[in-house]
Write a structure and sequence with these properties.
Blueprint (H helix, E strand, L loop, with lengths): L2 E4 L8 E4 L3 E2 L1 H4 L8 H13 L4 E3 L8 H10 L7 E6 L1 E4 L2 E4 L3 H15 L4 E6 L8 H13 L3 E7 L3 H10 L4 E5 L11 H8 L2 E5 L31 H10 L1 H8 L5 H12 L3 E3 L6 H9 L7 H10 L19
Parallel strand pairs: 3-4, 4-5, 5-8, 8-9, 9-10, 10-11, 11-12
Antiparallel strand pairs: 1-2, 6-7
Helix pairs in contact: 2-3, 2-11, 4-5, 5-6, 6-7, 9-10
């Protein structure tokens, strides 16, 4: 497995990780029936055997059960993994509630350490910015966790460039986690330049467009009834056909290489910058193996140009979420 470095040695934030990580959210909820712990652990262990190191979870996944499962999976293999988790979000009946207070940062970190059964969190993210708490206060508390030896590196998720710069002034930020794929390229405008300025890196979630870029989904109707993608704007009937038509260029590019559309999509993302690490989620060992193998694919400039010519931002129909109001604060 190829490796990349999140953060910057100049900032003291360098964190080596596998070039492709694994997002664990889909194992717990929102994508149909959750996997059993045994099933999920088998997938994770196969990844570790192949050189995967970056494992990404959050306390809200489950909630809490995903962290407990990960703790079981890495027992006896702690030195092989980089554990990233997140705090601040709570799922309620009326929607997502964000609490970025210093007290909650400390309480959530302690709880995550217990569930994960580890002594230190390698990369700790603020899952969403709390609009009622200055980012300086939240990151100040996260910096205290670093001083206390409970957290090694600090990250932010779904944040604006301006807020990122304010946070970094309080404590060096190692990584920003946000959606980035051929379907979601808005980070290119302001987030990537800001990352350059502060020496931080991008961890890309949903790098396969929530499965659409694999070309395997025929329609939203084939998804489980409790799969949240049925409500995603890009999966709606009118948008779905238009968006799926774009995937044809990935099929043709991959066909000449014996690669799948999903592998080409990941290879495209890896080619954008050396400090981008995608964390595709999966529930199957075969798909995990496929995703990790994408790190070996080096696309030519001609192939990249052909893909970019098709996947123009205006060609993609639908927003990332039904409600985008809580993003990029």
């Amino acid at each position: 497995m190829h490796t990349r470095v999140l953060g910057s040695a100049a900032n003291g934030t360098a964190l080596p990780v596998s070039a492709v990580g694994l997002g664990l959210m889909a194992m717990a909820q929102w994508y149909g029936t959750p996997l059993s712990d045994n099933e999920a652990i088998k997938v994770i262990h196969r990844g570790l055997d192949l050189g995967l190191t970056l494992l990404d979870t959050a306390d809200v996944y489950g909630p809490f059960t995903n962290e407990v499962m990960l703790g079981k999976a890495i027992a006896g293999r702690r030195d092989d993994v980089v554990v990233s988790t997140k705090f601040a979000n709570t799922q309620t009946k009326t929607g997502l509630v964000t609490n970025g207070t210093p007290a909650n940062a400390h309480a959530c970190a302690e709880a995550s350490l217990r569930r994960l059964n580890i002594d230190v969190i390698d990369l700790y993210y603020l899952h969403r910015v709390d609009p009622d708490v200055p980012i300086e206060e939240t990151v100040g508390a996260m910096a205290e966790l670093v001083t206390q030896g409970k957290v090694r590196h600090i990250g932010l998720s779904e944040v604006s460039a301006a807020t990122l710069r304010r946070a970094h002034a309080i404590h060096p930020i190692t990584a920003v986690q946000t959606e980035y794929s051929l379907f979601s390229r808005d980070v290119e405008e302001s987030i990537l330049p800001a990352l350059d300025d502060i020496g931080a890196s991008l961890v890309a979630y949903s790098p396969l467009g929530r499965g659409m870029l694999t070309g395997r989904i025929a329609s939203a109707e084939e998804l489980d009834q409790d799969d949240w993608r049925r409500m995603n704007p890009r999966f709606q009937r009118e948008a779905f056909g238009t968006n799926m038509a774009l995937v044809d260029v990935l099929r043709s590019t991959g066909g000449a290489r014996g690669a799948t559309p999903g592998q080409v999509a990941l290879a495209w993302l890896l080619a954008q910058r050396q400090d981008i690490v995608p964390i595709p989620g999966t529930r199957r060992i075969s798909y995990l193996e496929e995703n990790l193998a994408a790190a070996d694919i080096v696309l030519t400039q001609q192939e990249l140009s052909a893909i970019n010519a098709v996947f123009k931002p205006e060609a993609v129909i639908g927003t990332r979420y039904p409600d985008m109001s809580d993003l990029n604060r």
